[in-house]
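**Backbone description:**
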Amino acid sequence: MPLLLSGRTFRRDLERSKALALYAPLEGGAETRLLRRMRACGYHTEMSSVRGLGDPEVFLLGLHGIRPPHLGHQRVGKEAAVGEVQMVMPQLGPALSGPNPVLIWLLEGQVLSAAERSSLLALCEREPRLHFVLEMGGSRNLRWQPLADLGIS
C-alpha cells in the first residue's frame, strides 16, 4: 500500500485542514506507521486520550490545577481529607517552544461533543504549528476526513 509506505497524502491533508478525524482498523498498526512518518517529517508528536481532557486550550497551553480524587465521606475539620489543588504545567509548553510543528494524536475522540471538537479547531486556528488527529472509531480500512467536515451541530 503506497499510503502506508509514504504517508504523503495523510500529511498533505493534515497540513491543509489542521485537524483530521481518523477511522482506523481495529487490529492496529496503521496509526503507529503514520506517527512514525510524521516524526520523520519533523513533527513533534504527542499521544493522549480525550477522556479527562477538559478544556483543551487550558490543558495543552495553560497552567492549570488538578485535584486528587474524592475519597468519599470524610470528617470535616482539621483532619479532613479534602485534597489540595496542585498546579500542573501545560502539556505542550516545551513542544511549542521549538520551531517544529506539533501533532497531537487523541484517542477515543468519539466521546467528544461538537463544542469540544470546535474548540480543538479554534485552537488550531490560533496556533498555526498545532495539528490534531482525532481517532473517531474503527473501520475496515484506514480513512480520514477533515474534522471540520464532521459538523459542529
Notes: The two ends are 35 Å apart (CA to CA). The helical segments are 2-6, 8-17, 30-40, 56-61, 114-126. DSSP finds five helices and seven strands in the chain. The longest strand covers residues 130-138.
